[in-house]
Design brief:
This protein is α+β, with helices and mostly antiparallel strands. The chain contains 25 helices and 33 strands. The protein folds into 5 domains: 62 residues, Ubiquitin-like (UB roll) (Roll); 173 residues, Threonyl-tRNA Synthetase, Chain A, domain 2 (2-Layer Sandwich); 92 residues, no CATH class; 197 residues, BirA Bifunctional Protein, domain 2, CATH 3.30.930.10; 92 residues, 3-Layer(aba) Sandwich (Rossmann fold). The strands form 8 sheets. Strands 16-20-21-28-25-24-22-23 form an 8-stranded mixed β-sheet, with helices on both faces. A 5-stranded mixed β-sheet has the order 2-1-5-3-4, sandwiched between helices. Helix 12 runs antiparallel to helix 14. The chain binds one RNA strand of 75 nucleotides through strand 12, strand 13, helix 8, helix 13 and helix 23.
Length: 737
RNA sequence: GCUAGCGUAGCUCAAUGGCAGAGCACUGGUUUUGUAAACCAGUGGUUGUGGGUUCAAGUCCCACCGCUAGCUCCA
C-alpha cells in the first residue's frame, strides 16, 4: 500500500499498482471527471500511470483550474495537431513538439511545405480528433525496441534522437492515440476530448536540434486553453499588446523613422524622438558626473589595427560593415587572408565561411567546386597571385612562402601596413587609448571614461527589428579602469546604477542574467583562471545585492562574464538593456598599466558598462513601456493650448508664451476647428496636458486643465499650474500626482 | 543568413489578368465653435526596384531591395 497525503492534509491508502484515476473516483465522481492529471510528490503524471513503489507520497489531482494542467493540455494538443498534420500530409516527419510559455509548437517536415492557408484544414481535422475523445495510452519500450518502432513508422528524426540522446536510457515511453504513436515523455490528458479550444498561430523555420548546420524544419506554433472563453481572452490580450509596438507608435507619434534610402537598421530620430533621447542623455550625464565619471568624445572610425589588437575585427568579422581600405586591392586580399588563415575547416564552418565570402561578393575561381581540403586553399592562393599580378602589388614574403599558414602570415603583415579603418563596433579600444595617453598611478584609479558612443554592427538581415535590433546605435557607454581590489566595489556601484535608472523609469519588469563562459566552447579568449576569478566576483555581487538572477552558461562576452538586465517587448521577446561586464582580457592585449604604491607597474582590470544599453533599443522598449504616453518630464510636448474659437487665439498665444518662458514644452492649436477636434488630436498625440481657453478663462485669467488620462480637471490660474508642472518634472514623476 | 508570408497615395486599406480607388492627413474656402472627429472643394501614384510572360500585369514568373514572424547569431 502507498500512503497518499492530499493537499488538505488528509491521507488515503492506495494499493500498489493502482492509479491516480482510481483514487480520484474514490474521492468523488465529479473530481474524477474534471481530472486532467495528477501530481505525485513534485512530478506531474498521467491519471492512468501506476503509482511508484513508495511508502508514502504527496498527492494531488489536477483539474483545469491548476496552471500545471495547461501545460499538459498544450503538450497533448501538440500531439493532436501532429496527428492531424500526419493525416492531411502523409509522409510528414516529426521532430519535437513541446508546450511553451503561451502555447505549444511542433517541428515537422512534410513532403509539401505547410502554409498558413492550411491552418483551417488542420484545425478542422483536430476538431474531428477531439470529437472522438480517444485516450492517450502510454507504453514503454527498451531503446532498441523503441528505435525499431520509430524506424517502422518512418520517423527519421525520432530515430536520430534515440541514437544521439536517448539510447542509454533504461526505457523509453510512447503515447498512442488511435493510429498515432509518438515517442514522448508525457504526461498527457486522459483523452483528446479535453482539448476544447485551440488555434494555430503561425509557421516558421526552426533548425533540427537548434543547430544551424542541420536541416531546417517547419515549426507550427499554436495555443490551447480549456475553454473558448480563455482562448478568446488570450487572443484579445495579444491583439491589445501589439498596439503598443514601438514600430507602430514610433510612426504614429513621429518619434523615429527608418528609410530604405539610408539603409536597413539605421535609425533616423525625428524631432520628438530626439527630444526624448536628449532628456534621457542629460539625465544620465548628470548622474555620471555625480558618480565620478569623466565624459570623453571619440571618433566613429578607428584604424583596423586597433580592432585587430582588441580582437573585435577578427572575432566578429562577419558581423561588421566591411573594412575601409585605402588600397584598392586590400579588401580582396583581406578576405583571402581571412580564408587562408582559417585553414582547412569542417563542413559547418566551411559553409559559414562560404556564405560570408558570397556576401562579400568575393568570387574566387574554382573555390566552390574545390574539394573541402587543401584544394580550397589552393584556389585562394592562385586567386591571391592573380590579384597581386593584375593590381601590380608585390609582396615578396608571400611569393616566397610555400606553406599556407606562412602565406596567410605574409599577407597579414602586408595588410597591417595598409591604411585601413573600421566603423567602430565597440568604444572600448578608443577609451583604452585615452587611458594610455598618460601615465597612470594607482592614485588615479578608478579612471571612469564615459561617452555616448555610436557603434556599427552589420547584423544579419533577419535579425533587424525596429529600434530593438539595429545596425547603428549609441551606447551610453563607459569603461572603468580599476585595480583588482576595486573591482567588487565598482561592479557593485554599476549594478546599482542600472537598477537606479530602471527604477527612475518604472521599468520594474526585468530579469537579471549572469552570463558565464561555456567551458566547452572555444569562442572565449583569456586564461581560465581569470575567467574563474571574474565569474566568482560577479556571482558574489549579484548574490550580495539580493537580486534574483539566472546564471547562464554561454551568455558571456568573448572577453569576460557579464551581468545583463533583460526585459520583454510587447510580443514577449526578450531584449538585453543594461549590462555590466568584467574584462581581464583587453588590459592584457593592450598592455595597460598603472604604477602601484610599490612603484612597480601593475595591470588594471576593465569594467564595461551601459545602464541603458543602447539608446535605440532603450527608446524602443520605453515607447512600449509607456504605450507612447511619456511621463511629463519626458513628453516631447508637455502642454497644448486649445482656444475654443479663434476669438481667443490671442489669449491662447499669451498662455503659450508664458508656459514657454517658464521652460515648458508647449504649443497651441489655432486652427479653425472645434475644440472637440483639437482635443481628439492632442489625445492621439498623447500630450499630457491640454489647456482649453475661451470666454470664461479669458475673463477670469485662468486655463481649463485637461489631462490625457484623467480628463477635465477644472479651471485654474496659470502660475500654480506651472508650479505643479515644474515640480512633477523635477521629481521625474511617472504619474500625474 | 535560413524558412514562411508580405510590399498599392504621407497613414490605414480596396481593386476576377481588363480605365488605380476610399477614408484620414494635407491645401483652399465656409463655419466662430466648450472637453475624443463641423461642412464643401481640391491636390496627391512610374502599385518597392529591375527584368520576363501576355493583346493587356497592382494581379502571373524570375532576380534584387525592404518589412513581418520564428530559427540561427548577438561585442
Amino acid at each position: 500500500m502507498i500512503k497518499l497525503i492530499l493537499p488538505d492534509g488528509s491521507t488515503r491508502e492506495a494499493p500498489v499498482g493502482s492509479r491516480p484515476r482510481e483514487v480520484a473516483e474514490l474521492i468523488g465522481k465529479r473530481l474524477a471527471q474534471a481530472a486532467i492529471a495528477a501530481k505525485v510528490n513534485d512530478e506531474i503524471v498521467d491519471l492512468d500511470r501506476e503509482f511508484p513503489p513508495l511508502a508514502e507520497a504527496r498527492f494531488q489531482i489536477l483539474t483545469d483550474r491548476d496552471p500545471a494542467s495547461l501545460e499538459v493540455l498544450r503538450h497533448s494538443s501538440a500531439h493532436i495537431m501532429a496527428r492531424a498534420v500526419m493525416r492531411l500530409f502523409p509522409g510528414t516527419q516529426l521532430a519535437f513538439g513541446p508546450a511553451i510559455e503561451n502555447g505549444f509548437y511542433y517541428d515537422i517536415q512534410s513532403p509539401t511545405p505547410l502554409r498558413e492557408e492550411d491552418f483551417p484544414r488542420i484545425e478542422e481535422e483536430m476538431r474531428q480528433i477531439v470529437a472522438k475523445a480517444e485516450p492517450f495510452e502510454r507504453f514503454e519500450r527498451s531503446p532498441a525496441e523503441a528505435r525499431e518502432l520509430v524506424a517502422g513508422l518512418k520517423q527519421d528524426y525520432k530515430v536520430e534522437h534515440i541514437d544521439e540522446g536517448l539510447k542509454h536510457h533504461p526505457s523509453l515511453s510512447f503515447y498512442r492515440q488511435g493510429e498515432f504513436i509518438d515517442l514522448c515523455r508525457g504526461p498527457h490528458l486522459p483523452h483528446a476530448g479535453k482539448a476544447a479550444a485551440f488555434k494555430l498561430l503561425s509557421i516558421a523555420g526552426a533548425y533540427w536540434k537548434n543547430d544551424s548546420s542541420r536541416p531546417q524544419l517547419q515549426r507550427l506554433y499554436a495555443t490551447a486553453f480549456f475553454s473558448q472563453k480563455d482562448l478568446d481572452a488570450y487572443l484579445k490580450l495579444v491583439e491589445e499588446a501589439k498596439k503598443r509596438d514601438h514600430r507602430l507608435l514610433g510612426k504614429q507619434l513621429r518619434l523615429f523613422t527608418i528609410s530604405q534610402q539610408v539603409g536597413a537598421g539605421l535609425i533616423l530620430w525625428m524631432p520628438k524622438g530626439a527630444l526624448i533621447r536628449g532628456i534621457l542623455e542629460t539625465y544620465i550625464r548628470e548622474e555620471l558626473v555625480k558618480r565620478g565619471y569623466s565624459p570623453v568624445y571619440t571618433p566613429h572610425v578607428g584604424r583596423l589595427e586597433l580592432y585587430r589588437t582588441s580582437g573585435h575585427f577578427p572575432y566578429y568579422r562577419d558581423a561588421q560593415f566591411p573594412p575601409l581600405y585605402c588600397h584598392p586591392a586590400a579588401s580582396a586580399l583581406d578576405l583571402c587572408q581571412y580564408r587562408l588563415a582559417s585553414g582547412i575547416l569542417d563542413a559547418a564552418k566551411e559553409r559559414d565561411i562560404g556564405l560570408f565570402l558570397d556576401q562579400a561578393q568575393l568570387a574566387i575561381p574554382g573555390y566552390r567546386e574545390a574539394a573541402q581540403s587543401e584544394e580550397k586553399l589552393q584556389c585562394v592562393h592562385l586567386f591571391v597571385l592573380e590579384i597581386l599580378r593584375t593590381m601590380g602589388v608585390t609582396i615578396a614574403a608571400y611569393q616566397e612562402a610555400t606553406a599556407m599558414p606562412e602565406r596567410a602570415a605574409a599577407l597579414l603583415s602586408w595588410l597591417v601596413n595598409q591604411e585601413g579603418y573600421l566603423l567602430k563596433p565597440m568604444n572600448c579600444p578608443h577609451h583604452i587609448q585615452i587611458y594610455k595617453a598618460e601615465p597612470r598611478s594607482y592614485r588615479d584609479l578608478p579612471v571612469r571614461l564615459a561617452e555616448f558612443g555610436t557603434v556599427y554592427r552589420y547584423e544579419q538581415t533577419g535579425e533587424l527589428s525596429g529600434m530593438t535590433r539595429v545596425r547603428g546605435f549609441t551606447q551610453d557607454d563607459a569603461h572603468l579602469f580599476v585595480t583588482p581590489e576595486q573591482v567588487e566595489e565598482e561592479m557593485r556601484a554599476n549594478v546599482e546604477l542600472v537598477l537606479f535608472v530602471l527604477k527612475t523609469l518604472g521599468l520594474n519588469d526585468f530579469r537579471v542574467r549572469l552570463g558565464l563562459r561555456d567551458p566547452n566552447s572555444d569562442k572565449y579568449v583569456g586564461a581560465a583562471e581569470d575567467w574563474n576569478n571574474a565569474q566568482t566576483a560577479l556571482l558574489g555581487i549579484v548574490k550580495s545585492l539580493g537580486l534574483t538572477f539566472s546564471a547562464e552558461e554561454g551568455e558571456a562576452a568573448f572577453y569576460g562574464p557579464k551581468i545583463d538586465f533583460v526585459v520583454k517587448d510587447c510580443i514577449g521577446r526578450e531584449w538585453q538593456l543594461g549590462t555590466v561586464q568584467l574584462d581581464y582580457n583587453l588590459p592584457k592585449r593592450f598592455e595597460l598599466e598603472y604604477t602601484g604604491a610599490d612603484n612597480k607597474p601593475h595591470r588594471p582590470v576593465m569594467i564595461h558598462r551601459a545602464p541603458f544599453g543602447s539608446m535605440e533599443r532603450f527608446m524602443g522598449i520605453l515607447i512600449e513601456h509607456f504605450n507612447g504616453a511619456f511621463p511629463l518630464w519626458l513628453a516631447p510636448e508637455q502642454v497644448r493650448v486649445l482656444p475654443v474659437s479663434d476669438k481667443f487665439n490671442d489669449y491662447g498665444k499669451s498662455v503659450e508664451k508664458t508656459l514657454r518662458d517658464a521652460g515648458i514644452r508647449a504649443s497651441g492649436d489655432y486652427r479653425a476647428d472645434k475644440v472637440g477636434a483639437k482635443i481628439r488630436e492632442a489625445q492621439l498625440e498623447k500630450i499630457p496636458f491640454m489647456l482649453v481657453v475661451g470666454e470664461k478663462e479669458q475673463t477670469a485669467q485662468t486655463v481649463a486643465i485637461r489631462h490625457r488620462a484623467d480628463g477635465d480637471l477644472g479651471a485654474q490660474p496659470l502660475p500654480p499650474f506651472i508650479e505643479h508642472l515644474h515640480q512633477a518634472i523635477a521629481d521625474r514623476r511617472l504619474t500625474r500626482q
